[in-house]
Write a structure and sequence with these properties.
By secondary structure, the protein is an alpha+beta fold. The protein is built from 3 helices and 4 strands; from the N terminus they run E-H-E-E-H-H-E. A 4-stranded antiparallel sheet has the order 2-3-1-4. Strand 2 and strand 3 form a beta hairpin.
Length: 108
C-alpha cells in the first residue's frame, strides 16, 4: 500500500528564495534515493510562511530505507547543511496518509 508523506514547513518569509533552492535540490535527491516525489511547493498567494513537500513511498519500512539513503547522498547531506546554515525553516511537521477516495471518476 502506497503512503503519502506531507511535510508542512513554516519558513522565514524573507528567506523564500533559500527555500526554493532547498526544494530544487530535493527535486534531484529525493527521486534518486527512492521516493516518488510529487513536489515541493513554496508560498505564492495567501500565507507567506507555509510551504509543502509531498512524496509517496511504498511503506513505512521503505520510508526508513529511503531516509537512510537520503542522509548518505551527497546532495542530501549538502541540503540538510544548507537548511542548518541559512535557518529558513522555522518549523517542520511530517505526517503520513493513505489515499481513501480511489477509484476516482473520469472528468466530465
Amino acid at each position: 500500500m502506497t503512503i503519502t508523506c506531507f511535510i508542512r514547513y513554516e519558513i522565514d518569509p524573507f528567506k523564500k528564495d533559500d527555500f526554493v533552492e532547498y526544494a530544487r535540490n530535493w527535486g534531484q535527491a529525493i527521486p534518486r534515493c527512492g521516493a516518488d516525489l510529487i513536489g515541493y511547493f513554496a508560498p505564492h498567494e495567501g500565507s507567506a510562511t507555509t510551504a509543502w513537500g509531498v512524496y509517496n513511498v511504498d511503506s513505512l519500512a521503505a520510508y526508513e530505507a529511503y531516509r537512510a539513503r537520503l542522509a548518505a547522498d551527497p546532495l542530501g547531506k549538502a541540503n540538510y547543511e544548507l537548511a542548518r546554515e541559512k535557518r529558513f525553516i522555522l518549523r517542520e511537521d511530517r505526517a503520513f496518509f493513505r489515499l481513501a477516495s480511489a477509484p476516482h471518476a473520469s472528468p466530465g
